[in-house]
Structure formats: C-alpha cells, structure tokens
Write a structure and sequence with these properties.
Blueprint: H1 3-13, H2 21-24, H3 26-35, H4 40-57, H5 60-73, H6 81-95, H7 101-111, H8 122-138, H9 146-159, H10 163-166, H11 169-180, H12 183-199, H13 205-217, H14 224-231, H15 242-255, H16 264-275, H17 279-291, H18 298-310, H19 316-322, H20 326-337, H21 347-360, H22 364-375, E1 377-379, E2 382-383, H23 397-412, E3 420-422, H24 425-429, H25 438-455, H26 463-478, E4 479-481, H27 501-520, H28 548-560, E5 566-568, H29 574-596, H30 600-615, H31 620-646, H32 652-655, H33 659-670, H34 676-689, H35 695-705, H36 715-728, H37 730-736, H38 748-762, H39 767-779, H40 796-851, H41 862-873, H42 879-897, H43 910-925, H44 930-948, H45 960-969, H46 976-992, H47 1000-1009, H48 1011-1027, H49 1031-1046, H50 1048-1053, H51 1057-1073, H52 1083-1102, H53 1109-1119, H54 1122-1125, H55 1133-1142, H56 1195-1211, H57 1216-1235, H58 1237-1264
Parallel strand pairs: 1-3
Antiparallel strand pairs: 1-2, 4-5
Subcellular location: Nucleus
Biased composition (Basic residues): 1215-1224, 1249-1259
GO cellular component, one term: nucleolus
C-alpha cells in the first residue's frame, strides 16, 4: 500500500475527518494486516509504509490506534506475526521520541498480565511480555530511562518461571540488555535488583551465566570485595567451587542435547578461568575429571566443542597441553567408533573449528602447534584425522613449511610412543593377535598427507617446497643412504626404522600420483622479472619456463652419479643405464632447440622422455624397448624436418616405417600402463604430432579398436602383467583403510572356504569324475552286489586305504574346479582391462578428430567407428561396455558428423565418396535396429556435406536475392541425380517394408539440411500417401510431405508452375486417401486420417484456390464423408483437425442447442439421438422402493383402508404377490397396534432407523471398495 494513495484519498474528501475515519481508511488498516504476513519482505514493506504514513499525517488518534494495535499484536496467536509487531513497535518508539517508554511499558504489562490470565491465555500473555521487552530494547532508548530498564529486568525475572513456554528466551534477553547497559545504570539501578540472583549463582546455570556476563561487562562494579560478599570467595573458580561448577556444566550440557551446540556458560567459564589464571584447575578438574567421567553422551560432546572453541583463546603452552591431553584421546576414540553411517559424527564440527582458527590466526607457532597436535593423535599408529584434511589450506607459508618438515622428521623417526597413541576397547581385546605394524601405518599416512598437500591447489606452497616434497618421496622410494652428503639433504638423516616392502610399494604408488599432481599444478601468479607477464607458459612448468619433471630428473641423475653416498634399491643394468643416459642426451637436444623457438611439439616430447625415464625406476624391463624406440623416432622426426627444409629426400628411408607410425605405436604401448599421468602426456604428445599423422598410423589406432582383432593385441600382455603386479600389493594395504573400524575380519578365510564348498556342491558333477570314483570303489571292493552277504564288510586297513584314495580323488577334483574358476576370472579381468585400454585409445581418436577435422584422413574413420558402434550395440550390458559405447557414439556424432570443420578438398575423391554413400545407405537398410541405423544415416549426410562443400565466393556486384537463390541451389560436387536416387531407394524401402530400421526423423533431417534433395524426393513421398504398405507408412508419408511443404527453402525452389503441379498431385492423393473402406475402428487408421487431415490443412493454406477450384470441390466432397465413417466426439485431435480443414470451405462446426425439458412432460427422444442419463442420479433399478407405512387405527378401519392401499401399490407397478404379502403385513401390524399402540409404534420407528443405518453403512462400504 503506497502513501500516495492515502494522500489522494484525503484530498478528495476536502473535509475534516470525523471520529470514524479509522473505519473508512482501509489503506491505514491494511498496514497492520501486512505486519502479520508470513513473508518477511511484506512485513518490512508494511513497516516502512506505516512509519512514513504516520510522519506525513501526524494524527493523534492514528498514533493512539497504532500503539494499541501493536501492543495487542505482541501476543498474536500466530508465531509469525509476533516478530512483525515487535519490530514495528521498536521502530515506532525509535522514530517518534516524544512517545514515553514508561507509558508503553505500562500498557504492555497491563495488556499482557500473565499472572492474572486464565490457563489458555498464559502462553500468549507470556510471549506478549517477552516481545514487548524486545521492542523496547530495539528502540535504543531504553537505557535513557533507568526505571524502564529496571522494570524490564524484573519482568524478565518473573518470565523465567514460564520455562515450559519460553524455554531460555528470558535469560537470553536479559543477557542482551546487560551486554549494552551502561555501567552507571547497572551500578545505580540494576545491581540491587540482580543481587539476589547473583548471590545464588551456583544454584542454576542461568544465574551463574548472569553473574559471568556481569563480571565481564562491569569489572569495576563487581570487584573482588563485592564478589566475596556475594559468594564468600573473591574467585569463582577455586577448589571449593569446582564441584558446583561441574554440576552446573552437566546441566547445561544436557539442556542443549537436541540443539547440538556449545552452551554459552561453558565458554564464559573458560574465559573467566583465563582471566583468573585458573585454567589448569578448570580444565583438569571440571572437564577431564568431571565431564569425561560421565557416561558417554552430551558431556563428552560439550567437552569436544569447548576444545574447538578454546583454540583462539589459549596461549602456545596451553594449546600444547590441551592437544596432548585426555580430551583429545576421547575425541579420537569417538572418531574411531563413529564410523557407521547412522551414528553422530563430531569430526566435521571439529574440522570447522580448526579451519576457523587457522584462518583467523596469524601466529605461525600456534598454527603449527594445532596441526601437529591433531596429526599426533594416532590409533595404533594411524592418525585419526584424514590424510586429505583440507584445513591445511589455511596455513601460512612458513607454518606449512614447518609442518612439512615435521612430517618428514616423523617419517624418518617414527616414535609412535611419543605421539598421542590410543586403542579402542575392542582393539585392546585383540591386540595379542594383531600383526599390523604401527610404524608402517604411520608412514603410509604421512606419504598420503604429503601427496594431498601437493594435490590441493588451495594450499599456499612455493616452487621450492614442491620440489622438496617430490625429492624426499623419490629418494626414499628408490634409494638408500650409505653416507651423509652435504649436497644431498635427504642423506643427512638416516631412517631409524628401515623401510619394509609394503611401505616401498605405497611409496611407489604415491610418488607417481605425486608426479600427476605436479603436472596439473596451476601456474604461479608471480613471474620473474625477465619474463613478460602476457607471455603464456605451458602446463607443468616453473617460473623460469623449465619443466618441474626435468628438475626431478636432474636430481635422479645426481643420485646415480654418487654411488659412494647412495645406492638404488634396484640398481640399473648396463643397458638400462645406457638408455637413461641417452634419454638425458635427447632431452638436452630438445632443450637447445626450445631456446631458439618454443613449440608445443618440443615440450610434449620432453614430457614424454622424462616421464618414461622416471618409469624406468619402476618397471625397467617393460619400458626399456619403448625408450629406445622413442629416441630413434624423435631423431628421425628431427632429421625429416631438416631434410624438408633443404628439399632433399633419401630413397632408402622410404622403405623404413615413417617416424609418425613408430611414435603412434609407442603411444599405444604406453597407454597399456595403468597411469593417468602417462595417459595425459600421451594425449598431449599425440595432439602435437597430429599434423604429421598419416593413414598407416591412423589405421594402427583403429586396429586396436576393431572388435574382430581383440585376441591379436600384443599390448594386452602388458596390461594384464601390470594389473597382476598391482593386485599383489593391496593384500595388506587395503586393510589399513579399515583399521579404525571396530569390526574384525578374522573370519574372512573361513567364509571364502564355505563359499567354495557351496559352489562345488551346486555345480554339476563331471562325468570323468564319476568314472574315476567308480574305479576307486571297484578296486577297493566298496560296491556291494546281490550275491555278497551283508556280513562281508571291509576291515580297518581297507577302509583307511579307501579313505586315502577318495581324499586324493576329491582334492584333485577340487583343484580342477578351482582352476576353471580362476580361468573364468582371468578371462573376465582381461576383458575389463582390454575395454579400459580401448577407452584410453579413444582419447587419441577424439584428439585427431578435433585437431584435424579438415583432413581427408578423417574419412577413414567412418566405417571403423560405425562397425565398432554396431558391434558394441550387440554386446552385453556391463557398465564399462556401455561407457565405451557412449564415448564412441559421442565422438562419432558430435565431434565428427556435426563439426563445423570438415574436409573441403573433395574434387579428386568424388567417385569414392559417392560409392561410400551408396554402400552406407545399402548397409543401413539391412540393419536390425533403428538405433544403429541412425549413425549410418548421419554418416551418409556427413558425406553429402563433404561433397557439397562451402558455397563459392561471389562478387559484390551481384544482387542479394540472386545470391540467396544461388546458395539454395548450390550442391557443389554432389551428383544430385545419383544421390537423390540413393535416398529415393531408401525411402521406397522404408515405405514398402513392415519392419524397417529407417525412421521418418532421418528423412526429415535430410529435407531440412538439403532442400534440393527434398524437392527430388517429394514426388516419391506423395505416391506413398495411398500406396504405403500399411496405414502407418501412409501416415508417415503425409508427415514427410507436410515437412517438405512447410520448408521455406523448398517453397522458393518450387515456386511457380512446379509448385502448382505439386499441389495438384498432393490433392489427388488426398481425395483417394479420404475414401475409407473396411473397418474404421482401428487405431492405426485413425492416426493415419489425423496426419492426412494435417497435410490437407497445410495444403489449403499454401495453394492458389482460384486455379484449383475443381479439385477443391472433389476434396470437399471426400471430406464430407468422414463424419459418417467416424463417430465424432465433442472434442479430440481428429475432430478439431477436421473442422479446421472444413473452415477453409466455409463449413463451420455445428453448435448443439440446449433443449430444456418440458415441465409437464417432454417428447420422447428419437432412436438416432438416445436420451442421455442425467449425471448424479441413480437408475430406476437401483432406487430404493418405498413401502407403505402402517396406520395406527382400529382393525376395522385398517381393513377398510387395506384395499385402497393395495390399489395404490398396484398403480405404482408392484406385483400382486408382493401386494398380498404387504397387505397381510399391514393388517397384522394394525391388529398388533391395537393391543399396545404406543410401544409398538416406537419399536417400528426404531427398526426403521436401524434399517436406514444399515443401508447407509452398506453404501459407504460399497463406495470404499
């Protein structure tokens, strides 16, 4: 409601408003309705408008009414309305300072006197008083009138007794007032009123919190002398009061159990202990010995929250003391035991506490103390906090460097006893049988922690720290120290506990994951002085444009050159060392060329050389040949480029494979490695050599993806071997991820044996095994015959021999069964690895299609990709196969067929492309599914796009219209007649076969993209409007013709006489199509008629009706027969389309007139128009028949009246037999009523009422059913 409306209303009156103006001014009254709205925006708008209105008018009666409405609204029954009225009252008192706060406070007390209210009104009155005090506080004027402050505090003290309604709200309001009241007002007015509550501070948590707030706000007033007078001691936290404080803390913890928050009392006591220098007493006695000794529950969680909240308040020594105490152990025990999903977890809250502390703290020592404290909390050697704890991103650079140094020192000197080590109850019970090494667990976590620091891009780390972490992990992964060396910092400190093989395996995995993190690290913001800011640096480079991996390789070379100080874990052989040295030489050559001019190809080759060189430390046997081939390949590539510049070629080199082909083979072999880093580098390298890729190299890639050549791949051996090696490692490693759970896995082996035995029992017994079993039994005479007596049993020795033979036989059979299972598992693993390998190879195909979309070599990808998609469609429904199919289909359809970059030089390959188009369309017609046919049809349209090419550039003098027409008719190198014949053959196949993989949408897309071909095919589509094999095909022919007619480009191409001739053909086909014969109630026929009518409707819009008047008459006569064939409803797709068509002929849809039935009786409906039953009425057969009521009169009168009743019943259509029974019943009832009329009539009425109830119950039950 705007105030301008109010002003306008007042101007129109022109007279002094009477006393009843409040009732007339609806705008003013609507403000109060909006204040109670549930929407906060509406409430705020109403408040602003109300204040503006009162300022502009300044009427005393309106101000009085406003105060009354606002005071009344404080106790509104709707909870949403109370804050609105309270806020409005506070803003009103703040705006109009002439209003007396005392008078308003008196009105609130009188209106909402909860002491005198009835039981139903106590709750609303209590809320009214509370929100009234809040309004006075929000006005900002309450502290100018001390008596009002005193009255509010006293009223709040009385409201604390209404805890069942207000909970802790009065105490919170009192704390807010004390937090802002001046010390002078507190000393002169409030101290005397609150003295009793403060003197009894140890009785309730609320009173103690009141005292703590007063102590914090008014230290001059509440000096130690007054505190001693109030409590008997000058300090609140002492040995005498610590027990009382502990009990109050327990009550406060249980009071906020459902809210899951930290009580304010606990934090205030902690702050008081710091001011009174009694923190150790409070923490040890109240928290450790008090709260933690209780049964597990709210007191423990309060202690954990208090620990997190205390981090910013404590000094460095206090932080170290708290983080190494019992509270941390209990927190770790909670984290270990709360692994199940349904249990409450405190770890996320603690992470928020630590993150907030680190983000707000600038002290490096405190940050380091907190991180070390939480990292030192270990469960049997394994830290409780996760290795990817993201709080590290808030550390200062100096604190991060010190934290990394602590991690490295702990890795070298893993003293688990010096850490805060603990074990849960169940872990302590099974400690004797535990075989896990705490040192291994701790080192595994530290390595993962270092890797997570490297992987998190939010961590503030410099290049030097990155290299230090990488060098540390690399050194301890592949080298051991002999003697300390000043040039190698990692050798200055030796390992106290040697590394075991499991730790080495973890280090290897973590190191190559760390290399991937280094590769993906973002570029540093600061650039050196010598490098321009705008100059871009490639990924994985440092500020001086050198590769991070190259620095690491230099470090490895330094280690290899100092055998007196260090020695590798697996020393290189002479051949491997020679390959390593040659790799360094190749990288040095590439770096020299990079100084002359940077190129992506050069950088990619460096990355590939360095990465393969680092993998020599992991698997030298597998990558030695790859590295040698890579070196020769790069050398040949550089020689080729030099010879091209000099225009010299060698005939001998023509017989050797081209370097690009060798490079592609190397990349394919490298992709067999299970490394994401190698996969990314291979993509980068292939992207750089894409311009040099030839047909043979591309064929090598597609051969890997060929489903028919799965068994011929040599690279699969590498994949399987690598997978086997990797699957030997997690035997003990995977268990460490579950070490903090309480459930044991001791019965895993037994369960596996049980499953194997059950599987053997379920399998069918082998026939050879049966024969062997029979032989053993025959040899030992264990099979009895009819001739043998039952007394001839085997002796003990024979039984023992028989048992041995049977056990040997069954053990051999068990081994055979297990071998079969292992073979099946191996085959399944090989399939999974092969599919994973092919998905990686698809990366290369995608890179080539994106980078070289305009190359003629792309045409060689069409058929292999289509064949692969077709085969994958028939494969299983495994998730990995479906992912592979989805990826291949996306590359083919989106990256290849729909790409804006395509091959435009097709003059020399016209015949080849036309033959390929014919081949694809012929294949598409033979496919069993439309989903596969869609890709073949897309490939055919892509070939037409290649043949068409871009339109030729024209001179500027040509007219725009002629240029547009030329572009429409332009088809480039397309043989229009031949291509149209190919698609016409496909269209005829679609229309003449019941089951065809082709769809209407395919031809519609072709009509839209190539209007010239659409013009060639429209005549064929028109013929099949009537000659289609089924109604479905005839309807689809109508759809195709309709889409062609609606295409504006087609209309331009067929303008004039061709368009008129085409319309004549379509109209002739429609006339024949509307002559329906046979059964007309079929759904297919009805759908066909709908599509035909839609085509007819579009035709009548586009044809010149004056020239086709004769054809229109025949069409009109054919349309008029449709209502006779189909029973039209009131509305529907068929009916609406039909009348839309007939509207073109001037025939409108008839309107049905409403006929009112005559009062005395209407005419009977005709047979053609049967009368409709009115809705809501029961049929006659379902209506309840009325029975005549018995008359309470003498028998003679009843006998005389009986015939008349019978006559009336007969007139109603009752049968004679029923009439006799009814008359007899009536007579009997009349005789019986003569004896006791009153009693009998009452019984009859009761029976009738009972029958009515039963009938109602039956109807209700029937409705429910």
């Amino acid at each position: 409601m705007s105030v301008d409306m109010v002003e306008l209303q007042e101007k129109t009156t022109g007279q002094v408003r009477p006393t009843s103006a409040l009732q007339q001014n609806r705008v003013f009254l609507d403000f109060f309705w909006d204040l109670a709205n549930h929407d906060a925006k509406i409430r705020l708008t109403a408040l602003e408008n109300l204040l503006k209105y009162l300022k502009d008018n300044n009427q005393a009666d309106e101000m009085t009414y406003t105060l009354k409405r606002l005071v009344d609204g404080l106790a509104h029954t709707r909870p949403v309305a109370r804050p609105g009225f309270s806020l409005a009252l506070g803003q009103l008192l703040s705006t109009f300072e002439d209003l007396s706060l005392q008078s308003v406070f008196d009105k609130i007390k009188d209106k909402h006197n909860f002491l005198k209210a009835n039981k139903k009104g106590v709750r609303n009155a209590a809320f009214g008083c509370l929100f009234g005090i809040l309004a006075l506080h929000q006005s900002g004027r309450i502290f100018k009138e001390p008596l009002v402050v005193l009255g509010c505090v006293q009223l709040l003290q009385n409201l604390t007794q209404q805890r069942q309604y207000l909970n802790d709200l009065p105490n919170k309001a009192m704390m807010d007032i004390l937090a802002e009241v001046p010390e002078k007002v507190f000393e002169e007015v409030l101290f005397s009123a609150l003295q009793a509550d403060m003197a009894s501070a140890f009785k309730t948590p609320e009173q103690l919190q009141l005292l703590l707030v007063a102590l914090e706000r008014f230290p001059r007033t509440l000096q130690p002398k007054k505190i001693k007078q109030l409590l008997g001691s000058s300090n609140i936290i002492n040995n005498d009061n610590i027990g009382k404080l502990t009990q109050l803390l327990k009550k406060a913890a249980h009071s906020v159990k459902k809210e899951c928050v930290l009580p304010t009392l606990a934090l205030d006591l902690l702050k008081l202990s710091l001011r009174e220098n009694s923190f150790q007493l409070f923490w040890n006695k109240a928290i450790v010995e008090g709260m933690l000794k209780e049964q597990w529950g709210p007191t423990h969680f309060m202690s954990f929250r208090l620990l997190g909240s205390a981090l910013p308040l404590l000094s460095l020594s206090q932080l170290r003391e708290v983080l190494s105490g019992e509270v941390m152990k209990q927190f770790g025990d909670h984290v270990v035991s709360a692994q199940k999903q349904e249990r409450f977890k405190m770890a996320p809250e603690m992470e928020n506490y630590v993150s907030n502390f680190l983000e707000g703290c600038q002290d490096v020592e405190k940050q380091l103390a907190v991180m070390v404290g939480f990292s030192s909390l270990v469960n049997q050697g394994y830290p409780v906090v996760p290795s990817v704890w993201r709080t590290v991103q808030h550390l200062q650079p100096a604190a991060l460097r010190n934290y990394v140094a602590w991690l490295r020192t702990t890795f070298l000197h893993p003293r688990v006893d010096e850490l805060l080590n603990f074990a849960s109850r169940k872990q302590m019970e099974r400690q004797e049988n535990s075989e896990q090494d705490p040192v291994y667990r701790l080192r595994k976590w530290i390595v993962a922690r270092l890797a997570s620091i490297m992987d998190n891009n939010q961590v503030k780390k410099d290049e030097e720290l990155i290299l230090e972490i990488a060098k540390f992990v690399f050194f301890h992964t592949f080298f051991n120290t002999k003697k300390p060396c000043t040039d190698i910092p990692e050798t200055e400190e030796k390992l106290v506990v040697p590394l075991d093989p499991n730790t080495r395996a973890v280090l290897v995995t973590s190191f190559f994951g760390l290399l991937l993190s280094m590769y993906n690290l973002p570029l540093a913001d600061e650039a050196p002085k010598g490098v321009a800011v705008a100059q871009k640096r490639p990924l994985s480079t440092m500020s001086d444009r050198s590769l991070r991996l190259y620095r690491l390789v230099q470090y490895a070379q330094e280690l290899l050159n100092k055998p007196t100080f260090v020695h590798p874990v697996h020393p290189f052989s002479e051949e491997e060392r020679q390959a390593w040295d040659s790799m360094l030489e190749s990288v040095a050559k590439l770096r020299k060329k990079a100084k002359k001019g940077h190129s992506a190809e050069n950088s990619s080759f460096q990355q590939l050389f360095l990465l393969v060189g680092m993998h020599l430390f992991k698997a030298p046997d597998e990558l030695l040949d790859v590295l040698n081939d890579l070196q020769s390949c790069v050398d040949k590539a550089q020689e080729k480029k030099a010879k091209k510049k000099q225009k010299k070629a060698s005939k001998q080199e023509e017989t050797e494979p081209i370097w690009v082909e060798v490079m592609v083979e190397i990349l394919l072999s490298l992709l067999t490695q299970q490394s994401r880093h190698i996969r990314q580098v291979c993509k980068t390298v292939f992207a750089s050599i894409c311009p040099h890729v030839n047909a043979a190299a591309l064929t090598a890639i597609m051969d890997v993806l060929d489903p028919d050549k799965d068994g011929e791949e040599d690279g699969l051996v590498l994949v399987v071997d690598d997978a086997k090696k990797k699957k030997k490692k997690p035997v003990k490693d995977d268990d460490d991820d579950e070490e903090m759970e309480d459930e044991s896995d001791e019965s895993d082996n037994d369960s596996d044996e049980d499953e194997n035995e059950e599987a053997m029992e379920d399998e069918e017994v082998d026939q050879n095994f049966k024969l062997e079993l029979m032989k053993v039994l025959h040899q030992k005479n264990a099979l009895g015959t009819e001739e043998d007596s039952s007394d001839d049993d085997l002796d003990d020795d024979a039984m023992m021999e028989l048992d041995k033979s049977l056990s040997t036989l069954f053990s051999e059979q068990k081994k055979k069964t297990q071998a079969k299972k292992d073979d099946k598992t191996k085959i399944q693993k090989e399939k999974t690895l092969l599919c994973d390998y092919k998905i990686k190879v698809l990366d290369l195909v995608e890179v080539f299609v994106v980078r070289q979309g305009g190359s003629p070599l792309v045409l060689g990808l069409l058929e292999p990709l289509l064949y692969m998609i077709e085969r994958l469609m028939r494969s299983g429904n495994e998730q990995q196969v479906q992912d592979f199919l989805r990826r291949a289909a996306d590359i083919f359809k989106n990256q290849l067929c729909r790409s804006k970059v395509y091959c435009k030089a097709t003059e020399d390959r016209q015949e080849e492309l036309h033959n390929l188009l014919d081949k694809l369309m012929t294949k598409a017609q033979k496919l069993p599914e439309s989903s596969v046919c869609l890709y073949y049809f897309s490939a055919a349209l892509y070939i037409v796009k290649l043949l068409r090419g871009p339109p030729a550039a024209e001179s500027k003098e040509e007219v725009a219209e002629s240029k547009a027409a030329a572009e429409l008719r332009f088809m480039g190198n397309v043989d229009v007649e031949r291509v149209a014949g190919i698609f016409r053959e496909a269209l005829c196949f679609f229309m003449s076969h019941r089951k065809s993989p082709l769809t209407t949408q395919m031809f519609t897309d072709m009509f839209t993209r190539y209007p010239v071909l659409c013009v060639k095919l429209l005549d064929t589509a028109v013929q099949y409007i009537t000659s289609g094999i089924r109604e479905h095909q005839q309807g689809q022919a109508c759809v195709l013709v309709l889409r062609g007619m609606q295409n504006r480009d087609v209309q331009k191409l067929m303008s004039g006489a061709p368009w008129l001739e085409f319309c004549t053909k379509v109209m002739a086909q429609l006339v024949v199509a509307f002559k329906l014969e046979g059964q007309t109630d079929r759904k297919a026929l009805r759908e066909k008629v709908v599509k035909t009518l839609e085509l007819c409707h579009a035709l009548l819009k586009h044809i010149p009706q004056q020239e086709l008047s004769k054809d229109l008459e025949s069409l009109k006569s054919a349309l008029q027969s449709i209502p006779e064939v189909f029973a039209f409803k009131k509305t529907g797709q068929l009916e609406d389309t039909y009348w839309a068509v007939m509207r073109h002929f001037g025939v409108m849809k008839p309107k049905k007139e409403k006929i009112n039935p005559a009062k005395d009786g209407g005419q009977l409906p005709t047979p053609q128009q049967p009368a409709k039953k009115p809705k809501g009425f029961l049929p006659e057969s379902k209506k309840k028949k009325k029975r005549p009521r018995p008359v309470l009169e003498p028998a003679a009168a009843a006998a005389n009246s009986a015939p008349t009743m019978d006559k009336a019943v007969v007139e109603k259509g009752q049968s004679k037999k029923n009439n006799k029974k009814k008359t007899k019943r009536v007579a009997d009832s009349a005789l019986a009523s003569q004896a006791s009329p009153a009693k009998k009539s009452k019984l009859q009425d009761d029976k009738k009422s009972v029958k009515k109830k039963k009938n109602k119950q039956k109807k209700d039950k029937g409705g429910q059913v």
